[in-house]
């Protein structure tokens, strides 16, 4: 499954919507996605969303070449 992870770049600042970033990761399930991000980054994970086929297609089309899966 492909998951979209919303995060703040640092755990030391209060979360602000304007500074929320996202990445895409492929893992078998949501707990594995959270563990991978928390283990390999210093990000403050806000939310993890499983992307349906339609949502994944939309993300790929809207981001174009900027869409890429993060690998740890």
Please explain how this structure is put together.
The chain has about 70 residues and is an alpha+beta fold. The protein has a single domain, classed as Ubiquitin-like (UB roll). Helix content is about 30%, strand content about 30%. It contains two helices and three strands. The protein has helices spanning about 30-40, 55-65, and strands spanning about 1-10, 20-25, 45-50. The chain has a three-stranded antiparallel beta sheet, with helices on one face. The longest helix has 11 residues, at about 30-40. About 10% of the residues are buried.
Q: Kindly, what is the distance between the CA atoms of the first and last residues, rounded to a whole number of angstroms?
A: 16 Å
Instruction: Flag low-confidence runs.
Output: none
Q: What is the percent of helical residues?
A: 25-40%
Overall CATH architecture: Roll
Q: In DSSP terms, counting alpha (H) and pi (I) runs of 4 or more, how many helices?
A: 2
Mean pLDDT: 95
CATH class: Alpha Beta
Count of domains: 1
Estimated share of beta-strand residues: 25-35%
Please state the overall shape, judged from the principal axes of the Cα atoms: globular
Number of strands: 3
> What letter string, H or E per element, gives the SSE order?
EEHEH
Structural class: alpha+beta
Radius of gyration, taken over Cα atoms and rounded to an integer in Å: 12 Å
Q: The biggest beta sheet, please? A: 3 strands, antiparallel
Query: The CATH topology, please?
Result: Ubiquitin-like (UB roll)
- The main sheet orders its strands as 2-1-3
């Amino acid at each position: 499954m492909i998951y979209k992870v919303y995060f703040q770049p640092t755990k030391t600042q209060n979360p602000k919507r304007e500074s929320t970033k996202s990445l895409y990761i492929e893992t078998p399930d949501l707990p594995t996605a959270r563990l991978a991000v928390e283990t390999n980054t210093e990000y403050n994970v806000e939310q993890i969303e499983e992307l349906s086929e339609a949502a994944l297609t939309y993300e790929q089309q809207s981001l174009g070449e900027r869409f890429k899966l993060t690998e740890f």
